[in-house]
Amino acid sequence: xxxxxxxxxxxxxxxxxxxxxxxxxxxxxxxxxxxxxxxxxxxxxxxxxxxxxxxxxxxxxxxxxxxxxxxxxxxxxxxxxxxxxxxxxxxxxxxxxxxxxxxxxxxxxxxxxxxxxxxxxxxxxxxxxxxxxxxxxxxxxxxxxxxxxxxxxxxxxxxxxxxxxxxxxxxxxxxxxxxxxxxxxxxxxxxxxxxxxxxxxxxxxxxxxxxxxxxxxxxxxxxxxxxxxxxxxxxxxxxxxxxxxxxxxxxxxxxxxxxxxxxxxxxxxxxxxxxxxxxxxxxxxxxxxxxxxxxxxxxxxxxxxxxxxxxxxxxxxxxxxxxxxxxxxxxxxxxxxxxxxxxxxxxxxxxxxxxxxxxxxxxxxxxxxxxxxxxxxxxxxxxxxxxxxxxxxxxxxxxxxxxxxxxxxxxxxxxxxxxxxxxxxxxxxxxxxxxxxxxxxxxxxxxxxxxxxxxxxxxxxxxxxxxxxxxxxxxxxxxxxxxxxxxxxxxxxxxxxxxxxxxxxxxxxxxxxxxxxxxxxxxxxxxxxxxxxxxxxxxxxxxxxxxxxxxxxxxxxxxxxxxxxxxxxxxxxxxxxxxxxxxxxxxxxxxxxxxxxxxxxxxxxxxxxxxxxxxxxxxxxxxxxxxxxxxxxxxxxxxxxxxxxxxxxxxxxxxxxxxxxxxxxxxxxxxxxxxxxxxxxxxxxxxxxxxxxxxxxxxxxxxxxxxxxxxxxxxxxxxxxxxxxxxxxxxxxxxxxxxxxxxxxxxxxxxx
Length: 752
Ligand code: MN
Prior knowledge:
The chain is an alpha+beta fold.
């Protein structure tokens, strides 16, 4: 594959110049080679229908040309060819591939296709037809289209396979496009299509897509590596032959039927290695891999692969850390093989991939080959499970497309890990999944009550990132419920959707109380509790919905005291015209002080979900432990237990980088902060202040001192808050008290 890409790069396709007669012949020649590739699957009846699809497409596209000047029909024929030869799809997919651009670009309608080729073909072509939007080429349209493809995928995975063939063909002919189109198509390819091809098990297509995208995105690096690969080819071939020789002899002597060859790694993967490891081209040791393909009966597959392994390791020493057994647990995209890395001649590490013919076909043609071998067996395998998970996520999804695409990427295109339940059942999760993701994977009821987990019998918090092979037991509590910041803990779509559902449900319940309050207030004014009046309030408070109004009233974020200023006209209320507000200096000062400290204190972001923190590996704190936060350079806030073995040293040497933290009930962590209050001395002021803090706002007070002098008082309060929003609310409420002159935030040093 890499070799192909090199030659394609060095020698761009010649300009297209065929006369109409030659062109006609060329179209037919290409169509015939498609038929030839299809031959094993063709019979008299379906040959007719393929011909029909070809003619319909050729007729529909007949006035259209590709950017290269070629007749458009070259493209659908080439896409169909990829479907047949490189993906292993059959007659129906060929028909769909031939027709895939007709509905979008020509006068042919879906009804035409359904009438001529039936419902199944029409459905697939519909899935392949882009959604037309008013605004062209924005990112959300791309996401929208991608989502549509996925929706169809759940009915018929062929849609995505044909889409990948289409994308590959377009990438292969990208040189004729404008630079900006090349960049756009290449980044989409890297971002979505290559990972998707990978997940569909189409390794060759994935590799070629990556190489082609790199060719346009990083032309210099691409050219450089391609050149060096070409320069070192002779040397490499010599080495491969030297390496293979003893293996060939031993395998032949043992009576194996096998193929063995060296395969260069792709330019993109070499480049990734250079970037990731900061090495030069000459230092990348695995520029190629050796592949051994054997052909045993299906029952003997595993045994034979391990026999080959044993023969290899008799000849060369294996690196025990680089043995990958995808025989016993195949990847969810269906990939099966045994990989090992051995020490070859001249002290070079060499990767060897051992596969059977069946496994190789699946590795190269992915999904289609996978289904071919699976025929007749009803066992739900990992690929089916993966599809099932996508189906589930799509069914529940109501987020916008861009979010969906992001979620989809982290949930379904990421590499996966395998974790075990206490009973030893295996669960597949995307890399980066947390204990909470696992809990939701088990069951929504388990997820929403999850307070922590045990991994290998050790307690961990819900945010603990799982590793392959972990055995996880979820700890639940009936008192637990999902909170907003859980959304930052999970990566799986399922967990996200379920958490959002629960939050919405809770909001609705809470809003019921608010609704009652609003009703009472309106009735108190002698006006109706009706849609019009509610709408007036929603607009006045600039809220997105009445649910939001009721909710905000219920949680006392809105107290409706402004209602007093509303005009009452009969049964209707009307919001007063906005006044020009002159800000008082005192307020300005406070605001400034808060903002200034904001930038100094990383513990107060805009809201709690922006606080970057991680849990220290040395002491694995869990909710409820005594903890403190340590401001690390680069890694944000790290939470340690106060009895952590490192605590004393950290506290002693880096006291200025220590931040007091405390677990909060649902929001995990709250932060200690302080307020300085100055006002007129007044009996009961302490009571009023504490009432606001712990009564109304339910914020924990860590300490409170009040001093009064000559009719003035000065108080300091230390409180645990979750985020700036909560603190702001607190400051606002205290300022509203009679006689309060100034409310200021503390510096952390003063809190001590
Ligand atoms: Mn196309």
